[in-house]
Amino acid sequence: MSRSILKIEINNELDVVLAYKRAMQLSERLSMLQANQTKFATAVSEICRNVVEYVGNGSIRFSLVEQAGANYLEAQVTDRGRGIGNLDDLLANRNTYNRSGRGVGILNSKKLVDQFSIESAFEKGTKVTLRKKLPTQAPGLTKAMLEKWMAEFEMETDVSPYAEIKKQNMQLLEVLEQLRIRNLEAEQQLQEIRKLNAQLQLSNQEINQLLEDRDKKNLMLQEVNQYLDAFAHTVSHDLRAPLQNINGVTGALESMLEAGNASEANNILPLLRQQTQKMDRLITGILAYSLAGHHNIQKSVVDLHQLLNQIITSIRVPDSFGLHVQQGFPVLYTQEIYLYQVFSNIIGNAIKYHDKPEQAEITISWKAEQEWLSFSVEDNGPGIPEEMQQQIFNMYELGNSFTRPDSTGLGLSIVRKILEEKGGRIWVESEGRGSRFVFTWPASELVQEDS
């Protein structure tokens, strides 16, 4: 017997966070032990994130299930994607999937729940069922109790940074809709003006001015819309690295605790704290970027050598990569979040798109010119065709040879936008194998040694 509790549509990272939160709340209300609450919610999060990364959208339904005299909290995640090929290999934990990282989330989720099943068919989507057994003292779920829970969920006031960003985005979308309606109204007015234009020659100059104003507003509206879309994706783009590190550390911590190695577990707790602090800094910087505006982010003294070390640590460069950083990187008085995004995007791409990781070499260097500082990131990867060297800086333009499921198509467009804000520019040099990304930064922000 199954009784449905609630359903959530999964369309983006924010919905994944919501699904995790509801899983924790429901398992807590059903008297599940705290450790089991975390395991169940983590399994739900892993499967929902797979839906967002590999399909784009789906849904999750939570239910209370009775089977063979036992009660279970069930989460059923479904999508309408292309399905999973070689599903038997994945479930058997063969190396086919582990090399690319795909399928690891499914295997980890299977270990965290009491009952696990997955169904997948080509072009018909995938359905994953996760069940965690409830203790015998779990309360019976009545209609009144369920209605009370739903009301409490609706009345929640503890808003996370993710939810706040989503709320801001929805408000901006409402503003854009209002501007669109006003633009349609202006368009109708202009049509009437054109009909009278022959009789109103004396007003011709004024009408032309109105047309120019309308075109400017249209361009501004397009820019706002593009920025909103880019910013919404930037959150997951920039937070993914510390999230992956946190996931890895917590997995190791769980293994150590299960094995009873408390002393080793204590040794890695500082790593977990370091990643959460790094994530907090990123969230704070991103919110400042959203709320304070382009020109109001406070500057600070930024040691580029230390910043590059932080970025390289967060990206987790594979051991097979040779990474060389020129000595003597300067100290700047500038916006740290800008430089963090620029370097992390370019270095991350050099690692992500390298086709021969066992031979990979990446060199990061700089030089000072009269008015500009020039920074470069050079790799010996597959290179970028000449016809793509301009397009890759446009939003969602990746090129067929660079398309990957974990790429948003926004990274380099965000980099270009930041550099335009600073008055600099970015370009790529590539002939055959290897690529060299070069960008300029104002030399006026260089901190002199004697100061």
Automatic annotation (TrEMBL):
GO molecular function term, any single one: phosphorelay sensor kinase activity
Coiled coil residues, start to end: 162-213
EC number of this enzyme: 2.7.13.3
Transmembrane segments: none
Domain Histidine kinase stretches: 234-445
Keywords: Coiled coil, Kinase, Phosphoprotein, Transferase, Two-component regulatory system
Catalysis performed (reactions): ATP + protein L-histidine = ADP + protein N-phospho-L-histidine
InterPro entries: HATPase_C_sf, HATPase_dom, His_kinase_dom, HisK_dim/P_dom, HisK_dim/P_sf, Sensor_HK_Regulatory, Sig_transdc_His_kin-like_C
Domain of life: Bacteria
Protein name: histidine kinase
